[in-house]
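Example record used in the benchmark description.
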Amino acid sequence: MHMKNACSPAPGQVKNGTPPWAVQAAAATGAGATVRAGALKARTVHQTSSKELV
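Model output (structure tokens):
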């Protein structure tokens, strides 16, 4: 499931990006979930850089 934007900004409009604090918060949430899943012996695949999330 992913969010889709039905419209694109016009050439003169500013495109809003994800704020850095939100990217960091999402990375921390994902890291915590990975640790908990690992404790359950679940197989996990994770990224090593927050730059890969943008």
